[in-house]
Amino acid sequence: MVLQSVLAVLSGSLVGFTLGLIGGGGSIMATPLLLYVVGLQPHVAIGTGALAVSVNAFTNFAGHARAGNVRWRDAVLFATVGVAGAATGAWFGKSFDGQRLLFLFAVLMVAVGILMLRRGRAQPAAPGEQQDPDAGRRTMLVVASALGVGVLSGFFGIGGGFLIVPGLLFSTGMPILAAVGSSLLAVGAFGLTTAVSYASSGLVNWVVAAEYIAGGLAGGYLGMQLACHLGSRKATLNRIFAGLVFVVASYMLYRNAAAFGLAP
């Protein structure tokens, strides 16, 4: 039990540190660490990870809000609509075979790794290049994006920031910094919705969640401090982390391929 507590704190610290250092994608590691390092069962790992991601997201959102990096109308609309999608996705996720769910989770991890690499090569658009859709089309795009991302977030028990940020950019044309800050409200709301759904079925380990959250907050602070001193090297760290995501995803695909009859 003591060993599990230590592993939970260390795993949470690693996720928080990564999020603070490279600004996204770290939450995709929450479930694999809870599953293979801490030793939780698949559905419990997803429910517990969703709660930890939610708390850390709300904490970081508060900092962005104080800095003025939140577009409140779009953030609230995306989070509110997306919660319905997250609740639906969580319901399906709980009833889905655990091994198959983890296999599909690993496929998603590969997609995240690719997106992270593409993000590292992409150049941010200048303020004048941002296109702001008209009000009606903007609202419809936000609603559609929120529903789609919410379903994926709930199904896999992830915060979904790597999907929410592009969704906000696509549907609103807001600057990237505002999209990052605004996305955290949805990340927190989606994670909390998923966690409540899983908790109602007894699929959240509250002790491990508290230890994971504590480690994540400490790691996130250290990651943000280090990020301030690294400058352009963050792109290299982003590629290294994407490589780690690919390695973990490959292991998960191998471990759970039998669920789809793909084992050698």
UniProtKB/TrEMBL annotation:
InterPro entries: TM_pro_TauE-like (IPR002781), TSUP/Inactive_protease-like (IPR051598). The chain crosses the membrane at residues 7-38, 44-63, 75-93, 99-118, 139-164, 176-196, 203-224, 236-254. It comes from the Bacteria. Signal peptide: none annotated. Pfam families: TauE. GO terms for cellular component: plasma membrane. The keyword Cell membrane applies. Keywords: Cell membrane, Membrane, Transmembrane, Transmembrane helix. It is found in: Cell membrane; Membrane. It is a multi-pass membrane protein. Belongs to the 4-toluene sulfonate uptake permease (TSUP) (TC 2.A.102) family. This is Probable membrane transporter protein. It comes from Teichococcus coralli.
